[in-house]
Amino acid sequence: MKNNWKTIPPFHPEIDYSRCDYKNGCTLCAHECSWGEIALKPEKLDNGTVVYKPVANLTSCGSCQRCVKMCPYNAIHIVNSPMYTSHGYWTPDYVGNIWKQASSEGGVLLVGNGATGPQRRYFDHLMFDACQVTNPSIDPLREPMEIRTYLGRRPAQWGEETFPLLKLEVPIMFGAMSFGALNLRVHEAEAKATKEIGTYWNTGEGGFHKSLREKYGANTIVQVASGRFGVSEDYLKSAAAVEIKIGQGAKPGIGGHLPGEKVTPPISQTRMIPVGSDALSPAPHHDIYSIEDLRQLIYAIKEATEYKVPVSVKIAAVHNVAAIVSGIARAGADIIAIDGFRGGTGATPLQIRQNTGIPIELAIAAADERLRQEGIRNQVSLVASGGIQCSSDVLKAICLGADAVYVATPVLIALGCGMCQRCFTGKCAYGITTNKPGLAERIDVDEAAWALKNLLHAWAEEIEELMGSMGINAIEAMRGNRDRLRGVGLNEEELRILGVKHAGA
Amino acid sequence: MCGIVGIINTDRTKIDGSYIREAIRIQNERGNGLGGGFAAYGIYPEHKDNYAVHIMYQGGRHSDIIKKIENFLEQKTKVHHSEEIPVYPTSTIPSGPYFKRYFVNPLKEQIPVGKNEDDAMVDIVMSINRMGDAYVISSGKDMGVFKGVGFPEDIADFFRIQDYKGYMWIAHNRFPTNTPGWWGGAHPFTILDKAVVHNGEITSYGTNKRWLEMFGYFCMLQTDTEVISYIFDKLTRKDGLSIEDACFVMAPSLWEDIEYENADKKMLLRQLYGQAIVNGPFGIVLTHSGGAIVLNDRNKLRPVVCARVGSTYYASSEECSIRLLSPKVDELWSPKGGEAVIINIAKEEAA
User: Which residues of B touch A479 (CB under 8 A)?
Assistant: First the structure.
């Protein structure tokens, strides 16, 4: 009976042995596969020589595509397993999940890399304006374009007290991904890239490794999450900003869990927990049960950092996000990061990922609108995250009211990630979400930083092109500029919340 | 494409409107008959201490909105005098909306704590504009705006602007493409004593508008230019910035130039007022009771020519307008993009 309930892997590698060079000793694919999907089987050739033949086990492929990318002979491709049901309602996903839960796998199903649900991607339904006869477009190759932005609290008017600000040469930062979830090499690559471009990366909740502090602290945002891992006065003072993580888009209302086997000595030192112990970040901060408590923590951090750095609060995009953001702004936060439901993560319970939270497009528009209605938009900067996939998403988020965006999954993809959604296993074939020796070394810090810089450069150029096409040469003139957007195929309520007109209007 | 003209007599010599009518008329090619307008300063000396509120009623002289607005004004202000604005229908403009002007001062007891008479007047203007079918065309002291749908010379004849004498005039010839040609959407746009005529398109309108709404300014006239007068009022009157700083906020230097200059104040101004940047092509003439400003966008995407003849300054989209009025000039120049020409009447008087 148990055997009948074995889950069917959705993908597997198919090896074209007419191209494969295993007979001459190539076994690269098996070495590159960290999932145990491709094993080596001895084979005796006609001449009596024993060679090792790569064979797919058909059990654990997640389609990370590492073998495909690395095979020098293009002998491998990944194929989908045949559908085991043609039922329109009982799709393979639902059937497969029940099989999994009924089998020895049991329990809560975990997945990585964020929501894959069918909910509308509003970014795709928003179109930019373009110059025609009444306003000339601007050619970014010939004219200066300014995409620098500043984050933090501003005085209500000239002459009042000023506050520390973060200077971003591009309106894009790298979102929080902790040391532990990522390895130190990836953290250093993020730090290096952001330093060279002039923006910020976020350590996540796993602490800030001491080897990076002096060199990269000025481009780093450190997190204080419910687990308080690695939090000390030195830690708070080591960065350009401190972010209190209340929630995240991939799993609103859910805490974090780094399995003990991932807690290696450097991670244990940085997080200030014993080697091999599970690092649990509870869902609630156990000293924050109200907005007043949050205010106390914000000011405790400001005191600790002598009011020299802005304090950010990160929340998940949820149903009443506008009112929550207003409260957080009034509680003293300088920056509020809102993370949409498509935010990625190492591991999320499947049902949370697919069904909890709201899209960032609606959340950021509602929050910006509320802060403006209350006349306190200057008191706080808004950072949008959770599902930003390209440069036009960045600019659309800014038009909807964001000051800047966090991107995190694009960082992983830029480093090779194939979206196999198994980051939490610690077996990442690209060496990104793993600390395993042999795998983590697959990341070369300089090459990884180069890739990330390329990504930021490319998106910055695209943003400048888009702005130029609209005749705008300062990104300040894009912030909350919903006039530059039109909706296509959205209903009246969606348009009202987004604050944009329908195309043609 | 629009035409703009300004005449500023810094010695406060008054001239009648026929003068500027000719200056804007010869820029006929810069309009298409869908908007023309004039602002004049010094035209109501007998009511110079009262706010001269010009209101356009969409529904005609028997519209219910008139009574509603007048009741509102009675509640909020002391109305010293009111009258119809005389109009003279012509063959080109046989009819138009109904215009009245009211000379008022906000009632002291109606002014909220912490606000002054000007603040109260701005609130009154915004309230009227949001009621629908009635729009405040101008609300400054000893000044007024006359505007509508038509070529500017036809609008001049409709209002007989030659009957008004002022020391400072601006005029506009409109060629609308982005927003409808309607009477309220013609230039100049005003708030209190500030009046703006503009050639161009403000691509930052959405940002500017939403920023202004936080401070009680609501853009109801369906034309992007409306924001400029409000931004200027917010920056100079409410926030106390100098005219130079306000111009810097609207058309700032590049970040790299600010850093090169090591100009902390400019850095702060730009950081604080980023959403007040006016982006897109523009050439504007902005007048206020103390003088005028001529300003181009920082890419210099619209033409503006300035000239001086003695104590009279001219600004125009076309040099021909200036030469028509004064064939010989003492100075003539084209301001650089983002570089404000500030004409200060009070300073000239003192000198």
Answer: 207, 274-275
